[in-house]
C-alpha cells in the first residue's frame, strides 16, 4: 500500500487516477503519458518497473510485460499542486505500441 | 474554431478536455501539465501563445497574461491515440506559479 506520506501529496481525478508523464533518462525525450492509481504508484516505487492503470482494460499494466519494452524507473516526481507525476525512465525498445520510440509523432498545425 | 481535420484527431475526457504536457525548447525540461479544450487549442495554434483551460477557475488562461511568464509555442503534437498533447515552448521566466522554473521539484520515494 502506498505510504500515507506519499498518498497525502496526491490529488486524484474522479476515477482515483493521476496522469504520469514519462520522460526518457539521458535524452529528455517525452515518451508517453499514462495513468496511475495509488496501487500502481506503489508498485512502481517498490519494484522500479513502471506500472500503470489501463483505463481501457480496467487492470494494472506493467509496461513491457507483453512487449518486452520495459521502463526501469529512475525517479518519480509530483508537481507543485499534486495532480501530475513525472517519471524518468530507462526505456527498453519502443515506448509506443506502434513501434515508434515515443507516442508523439503527429504534429498539429493551424 | 478548431478545424475539423484537427478536431477529429482528438479524444477528450468527459469534461471535453485533453492534457497538454509542456516541454521547454532546447533544454528538454518538462515544465508543467495543463488542460485544453478545443478552443484553447485553437487559440494556441493560431496565436502561438500557450492558452489553457483553467479547471479551477473555469476560464481560458493565457499563460503569462498576469505573471509575464509567457510560453511561445514552437510545436504542438498529439499522441498515437489522440488523448494527450505535447507542446514545445520557449518559456519566459518561471513556468511554475511558485517561481520555480518547472513544476516538478518534489521527488517521491518508497
UniProtKB/TrEMBL annotation, chains A, B:
Signal peptide: none
HAMAP family for this protein: HisI
Pfam family, one: PRA-CH
Sequence similarity: In the N-terminal section; belongs to the PRA-CH family.
SUPFAM superfamilies: HisI-like
A Gene Ontology BP annotation from the UniProt entry: L-histidine biosynthetic process
Catalysed reactions listed for this entry: 1-(5-phospho-beta-D-ribosyl)-5'-AMP + H2O = 1-(5-phospho-beta-D-ribosyl)-5-[(5-phospho-beta-D-ribosylamino)methylideneamino]imidazole-4-carboxamide; 1-(5-phospho-beta-D-ribosyl)-ATP + H2O = 1-(5-phospho-beta-D-ribosyl)-5'-AMP + diphosphate + H(+)
Residues annotated for Zn(2+) binding in this entry: 80, 96, 103
Binding site for Mg(2+): 79, 81, 83
Protein name according to UniProt: Phosphoribosyl-AMP cyclohydrolase
Oligomeric form and interacting partners: Homodimer.
Molecular function terms from GO: magnesium ion binding; phosphoribosyl-AMP cyclohydrolase activity; phosphoribosyl-ATP diphosphatase activity; zinc ion binding
E.C. number(s) listed in UniProt: 3.5.4.19
Cofactor comment: Binds 1 zinc ion per subunit.
Classification lineage: Bacteria, Bacillati, Actinomycetota, Actinomycetes, Micromonosporales
Cell wall biogenesis/degradation recorded as keyword: no
GO cellular component terms, A-Z: cytoplasm
Keyword Lipid biosynthesis listed: no
Subcellular location, principal: cytoplasm
Necessary cofactors: Zn(2+); Mg(2+)
Amino acid at each position: 500500500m502506498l505510504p500515507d506520506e506519499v498518498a497525502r501529496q496526491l490529488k486524484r481525478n474522479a476515477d482515483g487516477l493521476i496522469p504520469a508523464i514519462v520522460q526518457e533518462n539521458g535524452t529528455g525525450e517525452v515518451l508517453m503519458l499514462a495513468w496511475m492509481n495509488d496501487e500502481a504508484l506503489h508498485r512502481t516505487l517498490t519494484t522500479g518497473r513502471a506500472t500503470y492503470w489501463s483505463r481501457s482494460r480496467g487492470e494494472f499494466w506493467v509496461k513491457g510485460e507483453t512487449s518486452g519494452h520495459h521502463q526501469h524507473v529512475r525517479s518519480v516526481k509530483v508537481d507543485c499542486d499534486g495532480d501530475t507525476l513525472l517519471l524518468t525512465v530507462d526505456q527498453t525498445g519502443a515506448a509506443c505500441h506502434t513501434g515508434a520510440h515515443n507516442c508523439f509523432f503527429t504534429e498539429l498545425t493551424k
